[in-house]
Amino acid sequence: MSTRALTFDDARLEFDETRARTRWTVSLSLALHLALLLLLAMIKPVVAQHATITEITMLGPGDSDPAPAAAGPAAAPRAAAPA
Known about the structure:
This protein is mostly helical. 40% of the residues lie in helices and 0% in strands. The N and C termini lie far apart (164 Å).
């Protein structure tokens, strides 16, 4: 009867596990990066709307008083009725 030494190929099993884990994580990372790239490419830039410029003038002490009303149009003279 002869004896045979048992060998455990732990390195091979670890390599296979590492390769399988690396394969799906790289695939997942690639898919996420592509989705992010497509999302960034599809976003339209926002057009900035410029606010209208309002001019502000400093008023003097009497500038805020109301102006006198303008006179209306002059009435037309009446013609005298014939006698």
